[in-house]
C-alpha cells in the first residue's frame, strides 16, 4: 500500500477519532462493540503514527514513499536517533498487532488502547520536533 501524505491536521483528526471511539458512545447500542471500538481506535492510532513517521522523513521527497513502514522505521533510526526510533517501532508493532483480528484472541483492552493513544500523542510531538529533511550521506573518497 503506498504511503499517504498527511499533515498535522490529519494526524490530529486521527488522534481525535481514536479518542472518540474510546469515549463516546460506549453506553449506546450502536453497531460497534467495545472490542470493535478498541480495535478501530488502535487502527486510527497506527495510521497517525505512520503519518508522523512519513512527515519526519519527508518520505516523498526522499523517494521513501514506496517502501514499507518497516523499512521506514529502519531509516528513522538513522535520522531521529536509536532511542526514539526504538520507541516508535515498539509502539507501531503493538498497534499493528492490536489492529488484527484473531478468532482466538479477545483483542486489545480499552485501557491498553487508551495508554497507546497517550503514547502516540507523545511520539507524534517528539517526531514533529525532529523533522529532518532526509539527505542521503555522500560517499567519501574520490
Account of the 3D structure:
It is a single chain. The chain has one domain (8-130). With 142 residues, the chain is mainly alpha-helical. The model is unreliable at 1-5 (pLDDT under 50). The protein has 6 helices and no strands. 67% of the residues lie in helices and 0% in strands. The chain is elongated and about 45 Å long.
Short description:
The chain is mainly alpha-helical. The chain is built from six helices and no strands.
Radius of gyration over C-alpha positions, nearest whole angstrom: 17 Å
What overall geometry do the principal axes of the alpha carbons give?
Answer: elongated
Low-confidence stretches: 1-5
N-to-C order of helices and strands = HHHHHH
Average pLDDT over all residues: 82
**With helices defined by DSSP (H or I, 4 residues minimum), what is the helix count?**
6
Main β-sheet description: none
- In terms of structural class, how would the helical and strand content be classed? mainly alpha
In whole angstroms, the N-to-C terminal distance is 39 Å
Number of β-strand runs: 0
Portion of residues within helices: 55-70%
Strand content bin: under 5%
Total separate domains: 1
Amino acid at each position: 500500500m503506498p504511503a499517504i501524505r498527511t499533515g498535522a491536521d490529519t494526524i490530529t483528526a486521527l488522534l481525535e477519532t481514536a479518542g472518540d471511539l474510546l469515549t463516546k458512545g460506549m453506553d449506546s447500542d450502536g453497531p460497534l462493540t467495545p472490542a470493535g471500538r478498541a480495535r478501530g481506535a488502535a487502527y486510527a492510532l497506527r495510521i497517525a503514527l505512520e503519518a508522523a513517521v512519513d512527515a519526519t522523513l519527508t518520505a516523498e521527497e526522499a523517494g521513501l514513499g514506496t517502501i514499507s513502514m518497516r523499512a521506514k522505521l529502519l531509516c528513522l533510526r538513522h535520522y531521529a536517533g536509536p532511542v526514539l526510533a526504538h520507541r516508535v517501532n515498539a509502539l507501531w508493532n503493538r498497534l499493528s498487532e492490536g489492529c488484527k483480528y484473531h478468532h482466538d484472541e479477545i483483542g486489545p483492552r480499552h485501557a491498553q488502547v487508551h495508554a497507546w493513544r497517550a503514547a502516540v500523542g507523545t511520539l507524534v510531538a517528539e517526531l514533529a520536533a525532529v523533522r529532518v529533511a532526509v539527505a542521503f550521506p555522500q560517499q567519501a573518497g574520490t
